[in-house]
Amino acid sequence: MEVDVSGADEIEDHSLQPDFLALENARLKWRAIATRRPTDFIVAADTVVWSDGRFYGKPADLEEARKMLSLLVGRSHEVVTGVVAGRLATPVEFAERSWVTFHDLSAASIEDYLASINPLDKAGGYAAQDDGGRLIAKIEGSLSNVIGLPMERLAEVLCRFQRLQE
């Protein structure tokens, strides 16, 4: 396995639905790499956090991360990851949805949380893999999806691909 950064410019259009936005960004990333490596099996993904018709991407700075978390605490939101996987001629794509509910946190708790992670490279400004129950009260759906790559669904795609190769 090898990591190859696509360099694709992600779309941040708040008028789009979360599954379309996540899949379109995954497609952009996938195409950028697959055209350079047409015989390789490429996996590209993009995760968006969505609440009340608003998309929460990667915060530009700590202040934006603080604002995002302040709007999400004590509430539920949707996490959608778009995945495109396969070779240039035969991509498979899907979107996986999970619902995340945050604890109702004080401003001081949010500050403590932000000091303990790097929120700038995470959709919504939080990291489920580093949470330990501090922020997240409940996840409905796939934890790996909330982290950024729905491994259960991807494993199904990889198994189908492997069977076709045999």
**Estimated helix fraction:** 25-40%
CATH architecture: Alpha-Beta Complex
| Biggest sheet, spatial arrangement of strands | 2-1-3-4-5
**Head-to-tail CA distance between termini:** 20 Å
**What is the residue-averaged pLDDT?**
92
Structural class: alpha+beta
Please count the helical segments. Answer: 5
CATH uppermost class: Alpha Beta
Task: Report the sheet with the most strands, covering strand number, pairing sense and barrel closure.
Answer: 5 strands, antiparallel
Shape: elongated
Domain count: 1
Give start-end ranges of low-pLDDT stretches. none
CATH topology name, in short, is: Maf protein
SSE pattern, N- to C-terminal? HEEHEEHEHH
What is the CA-based Rg, rounded? 17 Å
Q: How much β-strand is present in the residues?
A: 15-25%
Number of strands: 5
What does this structure look like?
This protein is of the alpha+beta class and 166 residues long. It has one domain (18-165): Maf protein (Alpha-Beta Complex). It is built from five helices and five strands; from the N terminus they run αββαββαβαα. A five-stranded antiparallel sheet has the order 2-1-3-4-5. Strand 3 and strand 4 (92-102) form a beta hairpin. Helix 2 (62-72) crosses helix 3. The chain is elongated, with a radius of gyration of 17 Å.
